[in-house]
Amino acid sequence: MRTKTVMACGAMAMALHLAAGAATAQVTEKKTLTLSGAKTVAAAAAVETRKNWAGGSVPVVDDGGNLLLVERLDNTFAAAANISIAKARSAANFRKETSAFENAVKNGRVALVANAELLPLQGGVPIVVDGQVVGAIGVAGANSAQQDEDIAVAAVKAFAMRDSKLSNEPVTQLESKNVEAAFVKGQPLYETEGYKIHASRREGPGMAEVHVRDTDIIYVLSGSATIVTGGTVIAGKTVADDEIRGSSIEGGQPRMLVKGDVMVVPNGVPHWFENVQAPFLYYVVKATAPAGGDR
Question: Is-above-0.70 flag for pTM?
Answer without folding.
Answer: no
